[in-house]
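note to self — DONT lose this again. spent like an hour looking for the file last time. sequence + predicted structure for the chain T wanted, 344 res
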Amino acid sequence: MNFASDNHYGASPQILAALSAIGQAPQPAYGDDDVTQRVKAQLCETFEREVAVFPVINGTTANSLALATLVPPHGAILCHAEAHIAVDECGAPEFFTHGAKLVPIEGRDAKLTAKAIEQSLGHFQKGFVHHAQPMAVSLTQSTELGTVYAPAEIAEIAALAHSRGLKLHIDGARFANALAGLGCTPAELTWKAGVDVLSFGATKNGALAAEAVIFFDPKDARDFEYRRKKSGHLLSKMRFVSVQLEAYLKDGHWLANARRANLLAQRLAQGLSQVPAIEIVYPVAANAVFARMPAELAVRLRNKGAHFYDWGVSGGGSTLARLMLSFATPDDAVARFVEIARTG
């Protein structure tokens, strides 16, 4: 019963098979191989336009290099106070940008609104040498609390950002889960809503170690390639990352994985909501369930083999448990967890 993280599960069989099948035949290095070129074409087709694609191996790299390409050292990046880039990346965005300022903003359900962003922008004076200059907004899709931004919400934020000369970045570590939950197209959830760059996650949803930075206007990519090389993230054997992305996208495998994880999250939330002592705290829109329960129940679940993280500081005799579902979570793990919660 492992609900600690979707990172705890391994790679999907299809992706492992693709890695195994790539063989030992020589291929050009540094992304000039056939596989990487096919992936770029796949992603252009997936997003219904010509995009600039750069494979990398993890989400922190994707976020940090994407933002560094858009934001100078004297710039500011507006994000939610619970965003991964603000809380869980050990200062990497600041490091990669050579000092840009992260501006955390509070918002319900870990989401930003255009109004909250506009209020925050009011604290910065454009052209004033003593203020960092806002250059980008970063949203997380799905959010740290498992909620999602609908296309209309993104479009409103993008319109405000662009009117102030800011770019819009999406941390899409769980982009597939958000997309599966919303039921729209990748294009509708990104560039058609005004997104400029996406950190396209695959690792949490079945890849071994594979992400991609996608610029929807290739001109915005500017010096990305040089930044990727300078930071040590231009892999010589890029095809072994790209083949994961190729298998991930093939025949809708990425969305099938996400739909399964989301379905299990709904099943878990429905089961736990029938337990009087448990409250489902946030809307379940992707593959995360946040359940507030008595502390003694959390202990009992752990004693019977359940793994999950406490979210925030527990107190008052209760625990807020973050329960993450994966494409590979066994059905019976969900059923057993619910049964223990009901009966002890």
